[in-house]
Amino acid sequence: MSSEPGSPPHSEFLAAAAQRRNVTTGQVIPISAELRRHEQQQKFRRLINPGITRPNSQEAAMASLKILSKISENLIREPENPKFRQFKPTNDTIRRHLIETKGALEYAIEIGFRPEVKEFQPLYVWNERKSEELRLGAQILQETIELAEQKLARSQKNAAEAKAAAEAATQKALLAFMDDRKTKMLRDQRDRDNREVRALHSSSVDHEGTTSPSSPLSNIGMPGGGHVLSSPDPVVVDEPPPYRD
Prior knowledge:
single chain; 3-stranded antiparallel β-sheet; rod-shaped
């Protein structure tokens, strides 16, 4: 029976698709192995999200992913090195980023680490039969970290651009305010100068009106001795000399 529209493809469909890809690329990969690999990749992705990223802060999740990636890469590079084949849960870095961070220890177990006790010391020891899981897990970790770092870089760039735009807008507003303030000061100074000029002009006109020139009649001399009619001194009139033949 064919699958219903919208339903996820079943294993036979995936197997057929994988077989077509293998024929196209010339690779000979068993279909069952390809499906198992795909399912394991999906499991690792789910262990990261939501397994690690959802219950922890972004910083804690990213720190744990980087520790898991470092453990995986060291073990892939030097699989026979004893110090890379195990880790102590009591180590401060391991305790903080793998034991206390939710979901991180489950990922370590999925790539092949198992709890053991050696000489009364608890350890997590890698099982070399989990080499394929180790490589797949390391690949998914690297992809996830790279995507997260790219996203963070874009976010930081956008934040920096937004901050620069806000600072530019603030500076522009400040310059506009200073220009307006300077313009107002110049206008106020001009108005004060105009008022002073008008005041000086008005004062000059008023002064000319109160100091008018003296009347010309006041400068004309009158005959006589300068006595007025109301003067108490008798007026002396000069009589002409007597007529003589």
